[in-house]
Amino acid sequence: MTDTESTTESHATDADFTVTPYAVAGEVDYEKLLERFGADPLTDEQVARFPDHPLVRRRTFYAGRDVDRYLEAAESGDPHAVVTGRGPSGPMHLGHVLPLYLARRLQRETGATVYVPLSDDEKFLAKDQSFEAIGEHARENLRDVLAVGFDPERTRIVVDTADADVVYPIAVRLANHLTPATVEAVYGETDTVGLQFYPAVQATHLLLPQLVAGRQPTLVPIAVDQDPHVRVCRDVAAKEALPVEKPGALLGRFLPSLEGPGKMSSSGDAPSIELTDDPETVAETIRRHAYTGGRASLEEHRERGGDPTVDVPFQYLRFFFEPDDDDLERIAADYREGDLLSGELKELAIERITDFLADHQRRRADLGDLAVELEPYRLTDDERRRALETAGVPRVP
Ligand code: TRP
Fold first, then answer.
1. Which atom of ligand 1 is least distant from the CA of 222?
2. What's the number of domains the chain is made of?
3. pLDDT of 4
4. Nearest atom in ligand 1 to 123's CA
5. Are 338 and 305 in contact (CB under 8 A)?
6. Which residue of 8, 43, 123, 303 is most buried, as measured by CB atoms within 10 A?
7. What pLDDT does 257 receive?
8. Does some domain include residue 332?
9. Global pTM?
10. Nearest alpha carbon, ligand 1 atom 6
11. Ligand 1 atom nearest to 126, measured from its CA
């Protein structure tokens, strides 16, 4: 562990902005955040070595930890894993599913094992919702995870409360090295002891691929607000004599909410595009709510041009929905020139997003009974036993 990485450093909050897993406020300075968190910007060389994907190529994922270790394993065909989880606090939005599609690409290109943990415990503790409500979200979210189209041979989906037989004993072992001071330094104050314990659970998620299948580079693609969880896990993994290496991270910027910069929230009132929205709803939502970089009047726009850097429909195309760099550049140029209008740019984004959602929704609709569909993705008895034994907490009876 480098000294800049210490988890006992103060959490990322100062006069300008705050970023913790439970609070994002102010205008986020992404570069400053890396200094505070002790993570590294992605180099051009690293970007070039990744399986090609717009989220990496255009640096929505812009930083990381131990990325080279992961890339080496991916390149040489050695075992390597990706962990990308979901907190089921509500229906999933476009922004939530993009890392899952990135993980699918990594799996298809280099055979990465993918773990998708669902932290229903965390969301019960962090949000003012009943277990019934969280459970309902979890079931719907699971359908979306399944609709992404992971390879069941190489993918495991874990639900904290449903897979507690394996998650809980390992979390307890890891919690033995997690002090309240560390938790508070990293996350700020938590309301309950439940949330104080939760970092041990998420640390468990990040180590599971290695506990099940042996030491291997593990990459965690997450929005940068989740980095504290990775830091805690790395710290705890180093203190424990476990046969694992520290998980690496691929850290992402927040996707702007439809109404402009900031974090897309599933629990707030801000309008957003849900994965189950039909094409009319998507079109209506974007036409009515999407923040544009256009000018106040048509004449002014034609004359002075728009600003793609703040235009949310353009940003959606850039993040994910326009894979071709030349086409994207042409769209940006036309917009800056005033040849392309905000309304036209919106229609372009609507078309791409509805195409993407149509495919996702088709796969979702093809799913049958959830428990049956989930079965091939669940940890096998053998895998459970191995994880517990490797973690040094063999089953009692
Ligand atoms: N805590 C994450 C959230 O609130 C969800 C999550 C749980 C997760 N386990 C994870 C994310 C492991 C990445 C890796 O969204």
1. 13
2. 2
3. 40
4. 4
5. yes
6. 123
7. 86
8. yes
9. 0.92
10. 85
11. 4
* CA 247 to ligand 1 centroid distance, Å: 14
pLDDT in tens, 149-165: 999 999 999 999 999 99
Q: Are strands 218-223 and 81-83 parallel, antiparallel or unpaired?
A: parallel
- pLDDT at 268 (0 to 100): 54
Whether the Cβ atoms of residue 172 and residue 393 lie closer than 8 Å to each other: yes
Question: Do the strands 218-223 and 248-252 form a parallel or antiparallel pair, or are they unpaired?
Answer: parallel
The residues of the chain scoring below 50 in pLDDT are: 1-10, 12, 263-267
Residues 142 and 207 in one domain: yes
pLDDT at res. 14: 53
The predicted pLDDT at position 7 comes to 43
**What is the whole-number distance in angstroms between the Cα of residue 396 and the centre of ligand 1?**
29
Q: Ligand 1, closest atom to CA 206?
A: 12
Are 215 and 294 in a shared domain?
no
**Residue 381 pLDDT:** 97
In a domain, 271, yes or no: no
Pairing of strands 17-20, 12-13: antiparallel
Nearest protein CA to atom 15 of ligand 1, as residue: 87
Q: How far is the CA of 394 from the centre of ligand 1 (A)?
A: 26
Nearest CA to ligand 1 atom 9: 85
Residues with CB under 6 A from ligand 1: 83-87, 117, 119, 122, 202, 205, 220, 222, 226
Backbone angles phi, psi at 270, to 5 degrees: -60, 135
pLDDT of residue 55: 96
Rounded distance from Cα 118 to ligand 1 centre (Å):
7
DSSP lists the bridge partners of residue 25 as: 18
Instruction: Give the structural domain span for 338.
Output: 279-365
Report the first-to-last Cα separation within the chain, whole angstroms.
Answer: 37
Closest by CA position to 364, among listed 84, 117, 89, 145? 145
Q: Residue 1: what pLDDT?
A: 35
265 CA → ligand 1 middle, Å: 14
Instruction: State the pLDDT at residue 263.
Output: 47
